[in-house]
Amino acid sequence: MKGVNRIAQMPANLKAGILAIGLGVAYAAALAIYGYMATMPCMFAIPLLLIVGIWVFVGLVRRAGRGWASVRVHLAVLLVIVALSCFFTVFLGSIRILDWRNRVVVARTGGPEPLQSWAMEILRKPRDTMLYEGPADWRVPEEHWSQQVRRLGPKWVKIEPLSESGPEVVTLLHGSGFLHWVIILGPPDLVVPPNGRYADGNWFRWRDGVYDCFTD
Predict the structure, then answer these.
(1) pLDDT confidence tier of residue 143, bands split at 50, 70 and 90
(2) Whole-Å CA distances, 193 to 165, 166, 201
(3) Does the structure show a pLDDT above 60 at 82?
(4) What CA–CA distance (Å, rounded) separates 174 from 106?
(5) Pick from 118, 165, 191, 210: CA 20 to 30 A from residue 108's CA?
(6) Hey, which residues does 158 pair with through a beta bridge?
């Protein structure tokens, strides 16, 4: 009861700050559980953290001369809000959580090793069994998808070069709108080119020749 009474006696900005922290934690949990599907509704969490953080900072300044206890609580709440805001924005925490979830999903469907082995088989198949989509681009029909790929449910699967002089890879596209992620599968000696396709994305190496790339 004492804890409840203390919360009831808190100023409104501190209550909002604690709720915003809870929302930030819920945002991270939603991304970890639901992945991309949680990005749009949770996009409100970041601006809300910033707005509430400013409100808590104003309260901190106003209470600076009213005792260390009040200042300490305001300061602690503000620091947590700033840390969460930086984690989700400056340090690309949202992308890292999504990458972690993608790793878990791939691991649950068999892991990256069979996925890469399947991709190497696809690269060896004659191109006349694929769907031509432009210079050096080939769509892989669903009848060539492995059971694991079907379970992952990409929007499409392609054979494409990472750059004009780069090696061909198999790519599995997921997502829509402002954020896509591409599982890129190539030989173990695959080197990510400094320019070319997906050069502006955020790359995560899962193993030699297997990458998770997030792009607009």
Answers:
(1) very high
(2) 9, 7, 12
(3) yes
(4) 13
(5) 191
(6) 139, 171
